[in-house]
Amino acid sequence: MTPEAPVAPADNLTAMLRLVGLFRRTFSDLLTAEGWLAESGAKPATYGVLRVVAVHGPVSQREVCDALGTHASDMVEIVDCAERQGWVERRRDPDDRRRYRLTITPAGRRVLTRFDAVAAEAEGRVLAPLDEAERRRLVDLVSKVVEGG
User: Fold this and answer.
1) pLDDT tens across 47-93, in order?
2) Which fold has domain 31-143?
3) Which of 30, 31, 108, 110 has its Cβ near the most Cβ atoms within 10 Å?
4) Could you tell me the residue ranges of all domains in the chain?
């Protein structure tokens, strides 16, 4: 039996990027089939914004950008759309009147539930080759890396 060649770091990165790309494409394709999303003008990235605001809100747009790794100019468009749809509210920060804090609305929570269902379906499709224990292990390892970074 010959020993396996070590995996190059570039191969690891390529595998991780492919996994992220596969999830993004699957999630986006499933959302495209959801008429309500196209009607709203929202984009798949709105899901991340609503998730961060729901979990950490009230929160500044800068904090949402930092949490998601999104550029501030992209965030403005996403938040503007979410606000027009009544999914988030911008409120002046009582500690700094130049800043706004984002809060999720009841309508935003309902939409977030719809996004969650689509994300769960995408995850199920992408991770179909893994059994339940492997899925838990993958999520645990990815969470460990993300939280440590």
Assistant:
1) 999 999 999 989 999 999 999 988 888 898 999 999 999 999 999 88
2) Arc Repressor Mutant, subunit A (1.10.10)
3) 108
4) 31-143
